[in-house]
Request: fold
Amino acid sequence: MRRPEELLERCYVDSPDDIDLEVIAFEAGLEVRDRALTGCEASLVGYGDKGIVTVTTGVSPERRRFSIAHEIGHWEQHRGQSFSCRIEERALDKAAKSKEREADDYASTLMMPTGLFKEAIQMNKGSVSLSLVSKLAATFRSSFPAAAIRYVELSGEPVVLVFTGVGNARRWTSRSRRVPEHLWIKTGIDGDSFASDLVHATELTKRQGKMPAEAWFDSVSEDRNLQEHSIRFAEGIYTLLHLTDEELLEERMSAKRAWRNRE
Ligand SMILES: [Zn+2]
Reply:
């Protein structure tokens, strides 16, 4: 297996604009085809050291890029197997060691390499915001959620990304290492949160500002606040919670309370 960094180096990538996924796929021995697929968004079929990636037609360019990167991830890590994938740009459970998760992680690093992504954060210096995430998504030609997940991983900020789906889309969260594990995200959407204002809003409507931490977390003191940044997309609401209150990061609840409030 070649790591994403090795493939990027072989393709002389040293800026986000250089990340051409079809060139990278070719370098890896893959041909990319666009065909209408039913029941999945992308597939991989390999023959020896050559393979074919098929991406369904009618998806956005960002999603197409992610699909190609995901299949390169399967090719490099799970050689000899064929895949039909429903590509979901969501944070998969860190504990679940699935091949889909491994392919997603690979795709994320290939599209948004650690060094280049951190540089882009620095260049756009400024505090945590939805517009910063949108800029990063534009720079790396990725979707908003894919860039937001990478931002949570690499920014070094105490942030949590919460996706609240509408319709059948399920809720998921992704938190940075700086957010202590004893802080439990509440299930469901709190009526006081900005996100709750967006349930019936039109696409790309934003709400942001100071919010009591208890609107998002279980068992936190009433006087703790955070910054909530929420935005409505067709599939649901993405919320970036910035834990600006140092004491919120330090406070620990008793083990008994933690047990009672476990997810
Ligand atoms: Zn897959």
Notes: The radius of gyration is 20 Å. DSSP finds ten helices and nine strands in the chain. The pocket of zinc ion is lined by residues 70, 74, 83, 85, 100, 103 (CB under 6 Å). The longest strand covers residues 225-233.
